[in-house]
Structures are given as C-alpha cells and as structure tokens.
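Our platform keeps sequence and structure together, in a single record for each protein. Such a record has a labelled line for the sequence and another for the backbone structure tokens. This encoding replaces a full spatial description with a residue-level series of whole-number codes. Below, we set out a record of this kind in full and without editing:
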Amino acid sequence: MNNLLLHGCLAAKMAFHRFIYDEKGDTNIVSIVVLIGIVIMLAAIFREQISSLVESLLGNIVNQANVVGSPTK
C-alpha cells in the first residue's frame, strides 16, 4: 500500500513538472498575440479608409436590395 501511494505521488509530481516546463504551446500563443496587435494597429491607422469602404459596400448592398425587392409593373 505504501509503495502504491509513493508511486502515485511520484507520478503526479512528474506530470506536474512536465506540465510546467512544457513549452510546445508558448510559440503559438505569442504569435497570435502579436498578430492581433498588428491587426489592431492597422485598423487604428486606416480607420477612416476602412469606415468609408464599409459604408460604400453597405450602401451598394442596400441599393441592390431595393432594386431586387422593388415590384415590377
């Protein structure tokens, strides 16, 4: 019984050690954060151009929807 408890404790300690010092996911998280930061900076820099483009696209969509939805005589 004592051996089983010691073995379980040692296995838990090794699993915790592997979890703490495993760096497989670090690079992906850092790269995602950097990419999100770049996207936010670009959106801030080109804020006016993006908003005018979106307004133009939405205006075209509304105009086309009105043309398609208007009754024909």
Observations:
- The radius of gyration is 29 Å.
- Residues 24-73 form one domain.
- Residues 47-69 form the longest helix (23 residues).
